[in-house]
Amino acid sequence: MKHYSIIVVGAGPAGFCAAISAARIMPVKGHVMLLEGGDQSGRKLLLSGSGQCNFTNVLDKDAFLKKLGSYAMYLKPAYYNFDNVSLVSLLAEAGCKHFEREDGKVFPASFEAEDVRKALLSQLFRVGVELRCNTRLASVKKTEAGFELGLENGSSLSAGKLILCTGGASYPQTGSDGKAARLSKALGHHPVPFRPHLSSVSIGYFDRFKKCAGIGLIGIQAKFITQGGTFEAKGDLLITHKGFSGPLILDNSHLLAKGDEIVIKWFPDIEPLLPEMIKNSKRMSVINGLWLTKIPPALLRAILSPVAYDLMTMSELRKSDRNWIIEGLSSSSYYVKALGNLSNSMASAGGIPLSEINAKTMESRLCSGLYFAGEIMDYALPTGGFNIQIACSTGWLAGQQAAKQTTN
Fold first, then answer.
1. I need a labelling partner for 390 at 20 to 30 A (CA). Which of 4, 273, 284, 326 fits?
2. How many angstroms separate the CA atoms of 197 and 175, rounded?
3. Taking the domains of the chain in order of start, what are their residue ranges?
4. Is the pTM of this model over 0.70?
5. Hey, how many other C-beta atoms are within 10 angstroms of the C-beta on 133?
6. Mind listing the pLDDT tens digit for each residue in 62-110?
7. Alpha-carbon distance 386 to 392, whole Å?
8. 68 within 8 A of 386, measured Cβ to Cβ
9. Which CATH number fits domain 2-196+343-407: 1.10.10.10, 3.10.20.30, 3.50.50.60, 1.20.1260.10?
């Protein structure tokens, strides 16, 4: 049985960074191994951002952490240790230049995810990490010397320190099937079942919106009435063939379930402004006369259906019509018919509870020498480059700490 000082499982962003940071500290090359179950590393990374790979965000430290919501304080040590500047520099050292978009999202200059993967591979091999693909973990056992890893091909490996970076359970065809989280039970952990995150939602009785598919709106306010409570959020909204998507929905999808209510405030200021719109657009059809809302006509028709406001001028609006328009544009209710599933969600929530992982080291609080990083941890982050960055940040900290404990 071959022994390694540190074995990292899962060759995604978290695994790459864990292995690189560990090997940079280890005094001798070849003491760190990175295992990947598939035939290629970084398969999910290659799909991120439709292949363009929005890998981080340019926000300053405080603003970046604020975007992480309730997970900010927990993830602060990892992010401060390896932030967006550190990740951009790591990739640049290997020849991957970056592009900062106006909205703060950072991409490889080529807009090709493959360039990010190649840069991480280059850094990996530069520090002497051994990468072994087509090697799936079947079992893990704690021993006096560290860990014994049983592989699906029947062979075994041993490690002094073990870092699990196997991701969540979304896009399982890329290797993120949640199996390693289940294996952690043998080491004393209590993984939370994975559920879809960054997922679109299907809406009930949505037929009238089908002609609106592809329409996007900026800065829409919404109230979510869920089984777990009521909350409000603001963000960009995208109309799909079956329901809603865009950051407003994606970032909060892990909190939603079938039957929950979403109240969309399409134009919350409609009530005080409607008299002015009527006065200035008396002869226009109602749909065209509501131009001040900046809502596309097709979407206005769907929101205000079933009344045919194309056939009525603004001056013809009755009190009941005005009330209908105010209610429709200021607070329309929609019901979640279905969430996306793990096979088509961009990420997942669930995994190893954060209470079971030391935030300052990424080491298990229940099993010494065991570390976690990335989406196997039970957090749910927004779109915009935050997920890949935090996977890299937690991976870097886990590898760094595992190596320091090994060399001490």
1. 4
2. 17
3. 2-196+343-407, 201-339
4. yes
5. 14
6. 999 999 999 999 999 999 999 999 999 999 999 999 999 999 999 999 9
7. 10
8. yes
9. 3.50.50.60
